[in-house]
Predict the structure.
Amino acid sequence: MGLETLGYIGLRTANLEDWTAYASRFLGMQLVDKSRGTATFRMDDKKQRLVVHEDTADAPGFFGWEVADAAALDAYAANLERHKVSFARGSRALAEERKVRDLIVLSDPAGNRLEIFHGAETTTDPFKPGRAISGFRTGPLGMGHAVLHCEKIGDILPFYQDILGFQLSDYFTKPFAAYFFHVNPRHHSVAFIESGKVGIHHLMVETCYLDDVGQGYDIAQKTPEMIATTFGRHYNDQVHSFYSWSPSKFMFEYGWGGRTIDTENWTPEVITQGPSLWGHERYWLNEEQRNEARELRISNAEKGYRLPLNVMEGNYKLARDVCPWWDATAPARKTG
């Protein structure tokens, strides 16, 4: 019955032309359809991953969560009925619009529209990025993650955990409260920040090469006010990333090298090292929170925290043994 991936996201915006340029020429997604009021984008072999509708204001549209097949979708619907959660079956026209076989539609306690679907359409046409990137890390990990604002963590977590079946990865409370949830080996596919408001805090996509992120950062620095969070590395999901302001004034995280977790043997924990191992100066925080986040990073440096890189076959090369000291410490590293 369980959810498997974050399959697609929909947005409403008063700045469709700006979004078209941002998603394709900056993020590197492929624009596949542009009508008078809608733009859709690919990231891989799925026919669409991001759908942007023109509207009078900027707001979240919908979040599409994938299940395995029709039987899993029916089981999910039955589970919602048992918990007395209102939902509706998606029409054939809506399924065709979303390019899926079937779906159900519901809202979470914060009013976010959730679409549970199966049978996403694929294409054999090669993915053609909007700028020269290596591609996005998707597949069984989904399209990335969404981090959402909420007024109070306690009002929304039981719905996502006990009814929808999300599993807690970890959480921290300083310099702000954030809880992270997984549905597959990606460290988190959704997270919630207790900010006293609702909406999107940020969306994240992950590239296959670190250079894609670095080059994106160079492009963003041509317009310095576009950068919301400087380049850095997270402690919990270990992603190297920076954040930029989207045309809808929420942030988009552009990352590389996220960890994958053993979902069958995972124990959630509180993260006391702060959200970032290093970097990630968060311009969007107030001064007190920025100082607290900076002190946490300095503490990490003083304690010498290090994390190995998470690489994929084909995007790294092993360096030749050129450091006798490093070679001599190999047995200690293997034993911890």
In short: The chain has a mean pLDDT of 96. The radius of gyration is 20 Å.
